[in-house]
Amino acid sequence: MMTPENKNTNTLLPDPPEESFNIRCPRLGHQINFSYCRSENNGLPCFKTLDCWYNYFDVHTYLTDKLAKEDFKKVFLNEGKPKVFSLFDLIEQAKERKGK
Amino acid sequence: MKKYVLTEQDMPRKWYNIMADLPNGMEPPLHPGTGQPCGPEDLAPIFPMNLIEQEMSTDRWIDIPEEILDKYAIWRPSPLYRAYNLEKALDTPAKIYFKNEGVSPAGSHKPNTAIAQAYYNKIAGTKKITTETGAGQWGSALAMCCAFFGIECKVFMVKISYNHKPYRRMMMETWGANCTASPSTETRAGRSILEKDPDCPGSLGMAISEAVEEAVADDNTKYALGSVLNHVMIHQSIIGLEAIKQMEMAGDYPDVIIGSAGGGSNFAGLAFPFALDKINGKEIDIIAVEPASCPTMTRGPFAYDFGDTVQMTPLLPMHTLGHNFVPAPIHAGGLRYHGMSPIVSQLILDGIVRPESLQQMETFEAGLTFARSEGYISAPECNHAIAMTIREALKAKEEGKEKTILFNWSGHGLVDLAAYDSYFRGQLSDHDLPQEQIDNALKDIESLPKPKQAT
After folding, report:
1. In this model, does residue B12 exceed pLDDT 70?
2. Residues of the domain holding A26
């Protein structure tokens, strides 16, 4: 868990810090590395990845380059929805699985 | 006096529901499938009807059943402390009080709602409650409270956390819960994920899918959530209601109220009963604090709806707009922050609550100052409230003002010492954005709609 090397320079690193670099995940409540955030969402990034990593490296450009436009839009360009909506979705999905 | 302790007889008999007093009200959520306001039946597959009624209630006061008061009495009323030693360490004229929610057996404020949810499920006939947890603060609280009421408890713990936080898992098992690493082979959702990726470290999304699936699959099983939802905020209001009585005992009233805010429940618990006074005209600065490294309230969502153009608001400038930045509400119904209680979000937009963010190094330094003056080792999230308190106390010193500050000490950090160890070993740092980066990014958004600055 080391600090990215360029913290005192005028530019952000283009690539993620090495795997041993961890930051505290505000959702889980413990330390994690970028690789986890990068694929937390069924292979896509956690919706908070940009928020959490923006000042460690140029995560915005990095993910714009790495993700398909549609995936980027799906993860990051959506309006925050109330938790209760997520629950509705999950209930419907669970009902579908139950019916199978 | 150092601490203000209410008797069990003084414990509040009613919870406070701020839904009754919101200045601009809140529109009911529309069901995304039907477009109609959601009704109780929409949530019935996973919550008992008595909790759904609370979720949708606009009654100002809700009776706390005796059975819940009996269980609360194990550690409630929680003490309110005057932080004399911290005041001395800071050499501040400010009077600092904190409400100690770390005295619960699970070590945090979470059991305030876990007990209520376990109780209401019990009387509704629920045999088993499922939930998801990350580091385990919520899972352990629910495990304990289900044990109190003889309800089976199953906690889907994100696998990476399951391996990372064994002590929380052990706590859950000690209280009799079945703590299962998610994704698991016990649900269709889990099996589907594992078929594609047997080494999947899991996520909160996967864990909640598994927990909800088990609740939907069995009429005797329900699901519980430890934050964000309205009924959770209602149950947590006992913190602030006790604090009001204790501040009266101290012959004082807070000028500033501070709580750390993740999903909003510990902040809301202390702040909402006081917010009622603010809504009625009292001058109180109510501050919700979050990490600057991952802001939710102070930066808000970076996704603006530009109709069909799908134009992305540049990310960096949104951060640079400062800690008082509040994006203008874009859609009818107001802004909703990812993962934050809608009521807290609404109170920010209404100007009742002021969001602030702090860098992690400052919060750990504050945690040490607190531990070395008042003794308690705080959960890292709780350090945000302490750091903001210290800021306000030092500001009072600079201004030569007497000021009364009250914050919620929401939980101890005895299961989070690895984070302190990282701090001691110099493995944590703050990262300010390079000015050049900020300047370039600001140029990019000159032509875009300007967000509203909070006052």
Report:
1. yes
2. 22-99
Q: From the CA of A14, how many Å to the nearest CA of chain B?
A: 13
- C-alpha to C-alpha distances, B118 to A11, B105, B348, B411, nearest whole angstrom: 51, 16, 31, 21
Chain B residue with the nearest C-alpha to that of A76: B303
Q: How far apart are CA B226 and CA B412, in angstroms?
A: 18
Residue B155 has φ and ψ, to the nearest 5°, of -115, 120
- Which ipTM value was assigned to this complex? 0.87
In a domain, A11, yes or no: no
The CA radius of gyration of chain B, in Å to the nearest whole number, is 22
How far apart (Å, rounded) are the C-alpha atoms in residues B281 and B183? 50
Q: CA-CA-CA-CA torsion for B238, B243, B248, B252, nearest 10 degrees?
A: -150
Instruction: Taking the CA atoms of B224, B225, B226 and B232 in sequence, report the sign of the dihedral they define.
Output: negative
* Domain boundaries defined on chain B: 1-26+44-108+232-443, 127-219
Q: Chain A within 8 Å of B209 (Cβ-Cβ)?
A: yes
Q: Is residue B436 very low, low, confident or very high in pLDDT (cuts 50, 70, 90)?
A: low
8 Å CB contact of A30 and B319: no
CB contact under 8 A, A24 and B212: no
* Domain B1-26+44-108+232-443, CATH class in plain words: alpha beta
Share of chain B above pLDDT 70, in %: 83
Is residue B395 predicted with pLDDT exceeding 60?
yes
- Distance (Å) from the alpha carbon of B297 to chain A's nearest alpha carbon: 11
> Which residues, 6 or more positions from B331, have their beta carbon under 8 angstroms from its beta carbon?
A79, B305
Q: pLDDT tens across B374-393, in order?
A: 999 999 999 999 999 999 99
A16 is a domain residue:
no
Give the separation between CA B158 and CA B160, rounded to whole angstroms.
6
Class of domain B127-219 as given by CATH: alpha beta
Work out how many domains chain A is built from and give that number.
1
**What average pLDDT does chain A have?**
82
> Chain B: residue nearest A36 by CA?
B201
| Mutation site for A-interface testing, chosen from B182, B221, B294, B357 by largest number of A Cβ within 10 Å | B294
